[in-house]
TrEMBL record:
It comes from Microbacterium immunditiarum. It holds the Pfam family PP_kinase. GO terms for cellular component: polyphosphate kinase complex. This is Polyphosphate kinase. PANTHER family: POLYPHOSPHATE KINASE. Catalyzes the reversible transfer of the terminal phosphate of ATP to form a long-chain polyphosphate (polyP). Transmembrane segments: none annotated. Residues 615-645 form the PLD phosphodiesterase domain. An intermediate of this reaction is the autophosphorylated ppk in which a phosphate is covalently linked to a histidine residue through a N-P bond. Belongs to the polyphosphate kinase 1 (PPK1) family.
């Protein structure tokens, strides 16, 4: 239930209507009003799998979606399932909004995950792999090779593979070896020819070698053999004098959920490094084996790994289809998406003299909204920071870094700025999951260059995407701000869909200055002007805006709510949307992943529509739009509607005020929610139904293709002018 003071916190100088909270929350909502978040996540990964099944998707992209599904599921087990099991073992309460026991939740997860992994294997074996053969790309078995092919592969094995293999025996003198998480292994049973005794050995498939070894490339096509098959057909070279009785592939997933008690440690970096070391040895949570594995070998693995039968996944075909990422990179343009070339945002395009654009001059003309990857990250965000590092009038740069890439030009720009004598503050979130080690490296590199590096607030992750540049202009300090929905990562910016707002608005500049002071020091801000900031204000602010629309609907005035997020889980936000729907507010939710909200339920959510869009780009931006009687209140930012985002992270939304930008975001939302656009529709029972073909069986509009066309059309129109 929402606390009584939720709507008491204002939105900066926003309207301070005195809402009657008792009236706002007097409607009753049923107990079973939420969908299970874990099963909803698995439903999201099923949508990824459906893209791999789609014959209208280019073939190598289908292989890529199979790899994405596998990678997603690995992380789901390493984090979500691991976290649930850790809570059960330690006796901690498991947050659940669906009224089931932890054991029931895990049983449902296991059943659905088993079903999806079998479907995943079937898509590879019976759809994508045969289609690749038709296109001249074959994954062949050893028995399909002739003597010449085998001789050539044997030469490769002895030169490139054999030297890095490390067979480990298991006997009284050699205990069962440690099995690293996500490694692909061979369980081998052998017989000692001298003693007749059967032995067991484990062999790790080297992860640094290509998973698919090319056999030949000719007019008839290209052929590959899987690395583990090449190794398994040379086991006699690894165990000379021994009889190879049997061998089977297996793969273990471990708990890799990092837990740090920040308030009990004096040095966060040291504690995190110790926890990362511990993570390598986390308890097993899933064992994948080939469906041909014999019971003797499986029983040995179950005993030695201390894992239950429910946690065993028998998979037909090859294990670890993440290897298809490599296969998907084959240079066959006819089997890939038609390339999209990002354009330079219109505001940042060079003038008639074709010189480098002046980013500061462009921002001074008015707010600039950029949309990645349709518009280039390199010629907008990266150019902004690189120009800031060079500009002698820039005095200071402050920036958050949640995830970045190796040899990042963003990090280099901050280093260049510090070495040029500017004040530079970098807030590096070292607790960004699976990027912890990389972020520690970058933090230390920045510190050595003279950058002031801080690690945020105790107990909170700093997830907001903020950059602030202080520039002296004619004796006056001016604040140039960037607030984004995605990370400052040049690599992911090419495949993640995100928005970023550049502004010289002094209100935003003062908001960011206050927020950075809070993050780097001890200042505590109560209000902001154009920002909504978690954990203190963001949920309260959104609840206030939702309630405002509900009041308008009750009064017979126009109303409307539109929300685009990666995940919709927070119960308070969902309940507020239910109450708004009960009052007649049209609510449209565009969600990529998890959604615990049930749309279309009579008497509760009849006016709520939920859609999901997946494609070549990962939909990552967050948009919050409220009708506000024709004066739209629109925000973009970093926050999803999840407990962790609203309660345990520093998040920031910025209000978009330029009419042209509001119109662009509205147009995008209109297109996404249109029945003519390919998307998945969520039903009240939690089932997602794909709507991607018209009445004639042809694909509906691809939102991402259409968006790229729109961006390019705007650029051509400017060129004509």
């Amino acid at each position: 239930m929402i606390e009584q003071d939720v709507l008491d916190a204002g939105l900066g100088d926003a309207d301070d209507d005195d809402f009657d909270l008792d009236e706002a929350f007097d409607s009753q909502l049923p107990d079973n009003r939420y969908l299970d978040r874990e099963l909803s996540w698995l439903a999201f990964n099923q949508r990824v799998l459906e893209l791999a099944e789609d014959p209208f998707v280019p073939l190598l992209e289908r292989a890529n979606f199979l790899a994405i599904f596998a990678s997603n599921l690995d992380e789901f087990f390493m984090v979500r399932v691991a976290g649930l099991k850790r809570r059960i073992v330690t006796g901690l309460a498991i947050p659940t909004n669906v009224g089931r026991s932890p054991q029931e939740v895990l049983a449902d997860i296991s059943a659905e995950a088993h079903r999806l992994q079998l479907r995943h294997a079937d898509v590879w074996l019976n759809q994508v792999k045969p289609a690749l053969v038709d296109e001249g790309i074959s994954i062949v078995g050893w028995d399909e090779l002739d003597d010449e092919d085998r001789d050539r592969l044997s030469d490769y094995f002895h030169a490139q593979v054999f030297p890095v293999l490390m067979p480990l025996a298991v006997d009284p003198a050699h205990p069962f070896p440690y099995i690293s998480g996500l490694s692909l292994n061979l369980a081998i049973r052998i017989r000692n020819a001298r003693t007749g005794r059967q032995e067991f050995a484990r062999l790790k498939v080297p992860p640094m070698l290509p998973r698919f070894v090319q056999v030949s490339d000719g007019d008839s096509g290209v052929r590959y053999v899987r690395l583990e098959e090449l190794i398994s057909n040379h086991l006699g070279d690894l165990f000379p004098g021994m009889e190879i009785l049997d061998h089977h592939a297996f793969r273990l997933t471990r708990n890799e959920d990092v837990v740090i008690e920040e308030d009990e440690t004096e040095n966060l970096i040291q504690a995190l490094e110790a926890e990362l070391l511990r993570r390598r040895f986390g308890p097993p949570i899933r064992l994948e084996v080939g469906d041909d594995m014999d019971e003797l070998t499986l029983d040995l693995l179950l005993k030695e790994l201390d894992i239950t039968a429910q946690e065993v996944y028998r998979i037909p075909g090859p294990l670890d289809l993440r290897g298809l990422f490599d296969l998907a990179r084959i240079d066959r343009p006819d089997l890939h998406y038609t390339p999209h070339v990002p354009t330079t945002p219109v505001a940042f395009q060079p003038g008639d003299n074709n010189q480098r654009a002046d980013i500061f001059a462009a921002i001074r003309k008015g707010d600039v909204l950029v949309h990645h990857p349709y518009e280039s990250f390199a010629t907008s965000v990266q150019a902004f920071l690189e120009q800031s590092a060079r500009d002698p009038h820039v005095l200071a740069i402050k920036q958050t870094l949640y995830r970045t890439s190796g040899d990042s030009p963003i990090v280099q720009a901050l280093i260049d700025a510090a070495e040029a004598g500017k004040q530079v503050l970098a807030l590096v979130e070292v607790k960004a999951r699976f990027d912890e080690a990389a972020n520690i490296v970058w933090a230390r590199k920045l510190e050595k260059a003279g950058v002031h590096v801080v690690y945020g607030l105790v107990g909170l992750k700093t997830h907001c995407k903020l950059a602030l540049v202080i520039r002296e202009e004619e004796g006056v300090l001016r604040h140039y701000s960037h607030v984004g929905t995605g990370n400052y990562n040049p690599k992911t910016s090419r495949i993640y869909e995100d928005f970023g707002l550049f502004t010289v608005d002094p209100e935003v500049g003062r908001d960011l200055t206050r927020l950075f002071n809070e993050l780097s020091g001890y200042a505590i801000e109560k209000k902001f002007k154009r920002l909504l900031v978690a954990p203190l204000h963001l949920r309260k602010g959104l609840l206030r805006l939702i309630e405002k629309e509900r009041r308008h609907a009750l009064a017979g005035k126009p109303s409307g709510i539109r929300i685009k997020v990666n995940s919709m889980v927070d119960e308070q936000i969902i309940d507020a949307l239910y109450r708004a729907s009960q009052a007649g507010v049209p609510v449209e939710v565009w969600v990529r992943g998890i959604c615990s909200l049930k749309p279309g339920v009579a008497g509760m959510s009849e006016s709520i529509t939920v859609r999901s869009i997946l494609g070549r780009y990962l939909e990552h931006s967050r948009i919050f739009a409220f009708h506000n009687q024709g004066d739209p209140q629109v925000y973009i930012g970093s926050a999803d509607m999840m407990h962790r985002n609203l309660d345990r992270r520093v998040e920031a939304l910025v209000r978009v005020v330029a009419p042209a930008h509001i119109a662009a975001l509205t147009e995008l939302f209109d297109r996404a929610m249109s029945d003519k656009t390919s998307s998945w529709w969520l039903g009240p029972d939690g089932e997602w139904t794909r709507h991607h073909l018209d009445e004639s069986g042809q694909p509906l509009i691809d939102l991402q293709d259409r968006t790229m066309m729109s961006v390019q059309r705007r650029r051509r129109a400017r060129a004509v002018r």
